[in-house]
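Supplementary material to the annual report.
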Amino acid sequence: MSDAYTLNKVTFSYPLSKVAAVKELTFSVEQGKTTVLLGPNGAGKSTLMDLLLNWIKADSGLISLYGKPIYEYHRKELGKIVSLVPQKEISRFPFTVTEYVLFGRSAHMGFLENPKAKDIEIALKTMESVGILPIANRLVTTLSGGESQLLLLARALAQQPKVLLLDEPTSSLDPSNTALVVSILKSLAKENITLFFTTHDPIVASECADNVIMLRDGNLLFSGPGNKAFVPSVLTDLYKTGIDTLAYKDKTIIFPTF
Amino acid sequence: MKSSNRALFITIFALLVVVFFSLGSGRYPKGGFTNPFGLLDDPLFKSVLLEVRLPRIILALTGGAVLATSGFVFQMIFANPLIEPGFLGVSQGAAFGAALAILLFPFSSLIIQLSASFFGLLALFLSYHLAKRFHFGGWILRLILSGIAVGAIFSSALSTIKLLATPGSSLQDITFWMMGGLYNSSWKTAWTILPIMWASLLFFVLLRWRINLFSLDDKITFSLGIAVGKEKTLFLIVATVATTAFISVSGIVGWVGLIIPHLARGVFGSDGRKALPGTLLFGSIFLLISDTLGRTLFSGEIPLGVITSFFGAVIFIGVLSSRQLKVKL
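Predicted assembly:
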């Protein structure tokens, strides 16, 4: 099995902060698998996502992407490999859905280029794959929470990435949209796309995860396959509150024991 | 034909009509209606048309395009539909820079231009960093407030320069120039700024799609594979240099960069592929109409800045009152 990301003793502190946001993280993200990042609020999940995006640079340690240090990638080159689905995004200008998804093509275009027929075709195809083709001409400023999430997913997919980073992809969604996003993520996993996402939703985590990374106070608490992660002792340790699991059909149900 | 293409076509046609009327209106040697075909034989008429009217019209068209597209670029880059270069102190900085140069080096238009550009960029830099230091309000509000403060500082510095200037020579120059206008246009002044303005317009038209990307959060634009800091800086420098070049000749001509992009987005949508060329053409039409009105309405000239401010403010009130605009301060 090859790895998409390999992290070796990665440490990062924000300027003016005495405490490191993440400390000596060492783990790998398997190519073509779904890795879920778990941790309580303030554990360093967002920092880790920013590091994987190369938006911030590690103070020490090395992050490699497909065997090459991430800082050696040209910005545009990286944009063709890794794409980001942010938790939410506000556009202050009323672009149409199609125009917005087309932004995802920029890494594949030259500085002076405008989107070509091929780019539009790819944008429309990704819109179809997440089911937002019917709202292609709506303005992004008028979309519901669920539609917005699918829009951001479509734009990230228009980048044709090998690795998709998602920040809380289901946090603002109702159950039916959550189910829709989960089913899309699972179908992407089958297409050999590496998925790496944060979530606070244990059901989404256990449903999607091949592998799990757990962070607490910037430290790596656990790195391993999902079936070893979703056990009461590990989860209780992570969230510092009583958590139990229950086997139901082929699923693991995770719940806090208040 | 797609509706936005039709709108573009109609706009170009409107532009030609305005140019035609602007060329024809104003004082010519012979009164009343004259046979247009005989006119070109008249040397005086020919010289008014080709040496006075034509450079002024070309300057107004280009200047309107520059002010409007720079406003469009600023709005995209600061993800803020409520700003234009003038709101970030750029115009006031440029005005100060130009006045300073008029005072110290009265005869060098190149130095006046360079000084206007330098202080325009300086004002932009100050506004941006001041806005980052404010600890209250959203980004849009902070940027507008810091722009007002920086603009006010340069305005007061400008007034001080007026006090220092010699009455009878440089004071008059500065005062006339500050009111804003193209009344002393000639080919000589036009050619000092036209090349750089045309180059900037070409730059923006070529990059009309890419400019969209900068309206997103920086991290998002970065994740799309764009070196966001470098490219934003490049766009801002080009927009500021073009704007200050025009200001160095015309004086402060406000509001164009704020309202014209709104009108163009209303017609062509938000995508820069259509909205930017639309903004460019609307800006040209707006400034040429304003300038033509300014020189023909009364026997004396109304300064261009006065006219654009009046129309600009009226349209701005209309835009702010419309339900389309959704801005979170």
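The mean pLDDT of chain B is 87.
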